[in-house]
Amino acid sequence: MANLATVTPDGAPRNAPMWFIWEDAAIWLLGSTGASAVKHLERDPRCAVEIVHFDNEAGILLHLGLRGSATIEPMAPKRFKRLLHKYLGPEATWNRWFIDNVADIGHPDGRLIRLAPKSIFTNNVSFFKTGPELGVAAEAVSSALSTGTIVSHWSAARPRGKSRLDPEFLR
Fold first, then answer.
1. Which of 28, 51, 90, 102 could bond 64 through an S-S bridge, CB–CB 3.0 to 4.6 Å?
2. 37-46: b or e for each residue (b if 16 or more CB lie within 10 Å)?
3. What is the pLDDT of residue 167?
């Protein structure tokens, strides 16, 4: 789950949790022509997206921040289905009522919010319980960020029970 921060007409911040997918060097979030996030971004495209992976039991606390100017794109049903698959699993198991009445893949008002970030921030404070043994070395995070794998790993399913970032986890 990602949190999208936008600016309201009176300049106040607005934050909303949203489903997302990472594709084509951008984060894609759901929207519609009537949604407040879409309206805010059409007026002022500046935004921030924050993703936090927190597993208290395993001692993991990872933060990814993306900032830039978003664009509002027409609905792309194939991309939308990939996003739904990420959260709902295989299409054969989808709740038909939810798909037909809420997701409404073919609705003409459907939109996608696209943010190709101008800046990316990562922070790993997984040492909060145990000290440096559990934290990832700064050079590993820097390397992953420079190759783009730190961003793409957020769009993949996170393995349960992992207590540290390993190369497989970053993919």
1. 51
2. bbebbeeebe
3. 31
Going by their DSSP bridges, the two strands 26-32 and 20-23 should be labelled as: antiparallel
Q: In this structure, which amino acid lies at residue 118?
A: K
Q: How confident is the model at residue 106 (pLDDT cuts 50, 70, 90)?
A: confident
Token digits of residue 170: 């970053």
Instruction: For 24-72, write each residue's pLDDT tens digit.
Output: 999 999 998 999 999 999 999 999 999 998 888 888 888 899 999 999 9
Contact 66, 117 (CB under 8 A): yes
- Distance CA(89)–CA(103), nearest Å, equals 14
- The reported pTM is 0.76
